[in-house]
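Lab meeting, item 3. Inverse folding demo.
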């Protein structure tokens, strides 16, 4: 990515889809109401890559599209426009979704005991799953012991608190 101050719309587009989305976002900011073909021409991207990006950004309400008839060819085309004012709402929605997933994971971690053999390539399992294999790892054969997940729970609680603080500050 280029070393320059970026518009938040461009930054979000890049986080969603990478370099192609950044190019599309910049093209939309430089040419409001651009068609797929105009964006492809401005970015050097293939039309399918442009369409994938604009449909994705449209689906996330970060751009709008209006259908108009192309006077030269006679068929309908879409003209796309960036909705920079939707970036904050998009970010707030993503924060709420992340917060909900973190809370669900914390609840899961708090309500289960986990057993683990200690081998890095093996996975931890719940008490019920460990009991089914008689507390013996089906992958490596070692005995499974109660695993302390307090560090993970603390990390989840810390991230939840951080996101809640950020959301309070933005209100």
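The presenter then showed the designed sequence:
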């Amino acid at each position: 990515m280029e070393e320059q101050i970026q518009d938040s719309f461009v930054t979000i587009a890049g986080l969603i889809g990478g370099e192609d989305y950044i190019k599309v976002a910049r093209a939309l900011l430089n040419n409001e109401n651009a068609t797929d073909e105009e964006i492809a021409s401005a970015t050097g991207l293939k039309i399918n890559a442009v369409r994938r990006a604009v449909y994705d950004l449209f689906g996330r309400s970060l751009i709008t599209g209006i259908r108009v008839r192309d006077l030269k060819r006679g068929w309908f085309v879409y003209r796309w426009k960036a909705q920079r004012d939707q970036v904050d709402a998009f970010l707030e929605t993503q924060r709420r979704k992340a917060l909900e997933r973190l809370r669900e994971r914390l609840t899961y971690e708090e309500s289960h005991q986990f057993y683990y053999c200690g081998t890095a390539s093996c996975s931890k399992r719940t008490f019920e799953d460990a009991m089914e294999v008689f507390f013996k790892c089906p992958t490596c054969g070692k005995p499974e012991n109660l695993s302390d997940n307090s560090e993970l729970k603390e990390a989840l609680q810390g991230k939840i608190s951080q996101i809640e603080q950020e959301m309070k500050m933005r209100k």
